[in-house]
Amino acid sequence: MATNRTFTMIKPDAVESGYIGGILKMINDAGFRIVAMKYTKLSAEIAGKFYEVHKDRPFYGELVQYMSSGPIVAVILEKENAMSDFRILIGATDPTKADEGTIRKIYAKSIAANAVHGSDSDENAEIEGAFFFSQLERF
Ligand code: CMP
């Protein structure tokens, strides 16, 4: 059954470029409520753990290096059909393939520096949210 929460990170490229406000505005305008939010910087070890599911992919090393290269914003979001609606809002992983008007089409620089992460299942949304936030930190 679909849950009403998902998890996102605003990635180092978007933070560095000053896009936090613009991206959060698009998220709010699309009807998502922020349940928890943290501005932080990942060590390579923590980024490696977060993306462990991709550890056998050829881009894993680049992904871990990139995700630990600067601050990120971790956010839990709430909305009906949160996970699937959020993936529509952010667009395809590769920004050259993302639809017009999506967050990645507007803000992403490349497939690696693609502005935002979005959980790809309800189960992963729960796991990823819990990776960054304790129960007490969520409203
Ligand atoms: P994200 O939604 O954070 O989940 C995994 C990330 O791996 C993905 O976004 C991309 O940033 C990154 N990724 C996926 N495919 C590639 C690729 N071919 N080259 C580099 N990075 C990739």
Task: Write up this protein.
This protein has a four-stranded antiparallel β-sheet with strand order 2-3-1-4. The chain is of the alpha+beta class. Helix 3 packs across helix 4. The longest helix has 11 residues. The protein has one domain: Alpha-Beta Plaits (2-Layer Sandwich). 40% of the residues lie in helices and 17% in strands. The radius of gyration is 14 Å and the shape is globular. The structure holds adenosine-3',5'-cyclic-monophosphate. The site of adenosine-3',5'-cyclic-monophosphate has 10 residues, from helix 4 and strand 4.
In short:
The protein is α+β, with helices and mostly antiparallel strands and 139 residues long.
From the structure above, extract its key features:
single chain; Alpha-Beta Plaits; alpha+beta; 4 strands; binds adenosine-3',5'-cyclic-monophosphate; about 140 residues; globular
Write the SSE topology.
Layout: E1 5-10, H1 12-16, H2 20-29, E2 33-40, H3 44-50, H4 60-67, E3 72-78, H5 82-90, H6 103-107, E4 116-118, H7 122-132
Antiparallel strand pairs: 1-3, 1-4, 2-3
Helix pairs in contact: 3-4
Number of domains: 1
Strand order of the largest sheet: 2-3-1-4
- Name the beta content range: 15-25%
> Could you say which overall geometry the principal axes of the C-alpha atoms support?
globular
Secondary-structure element order, N to C:
EHHEHHEHHEH
Ligand inventory reads: adenosine-3',5'-cyclic-monophosphate
Low-confidence stretches: none
Number of E-type strands: 4
* Alpha plus pi helix count: 7
Largest sheet: 4 strands, antiparallel
**Overall mean confidence score, pLDDT:** 96
Rg from Cα: 14 Å
CATH architecture: 2-Layer Sandwich
Helix percentage: 25-40%
Q: Per CATH, what is the topology?
A: Alpha-Beta Plaits
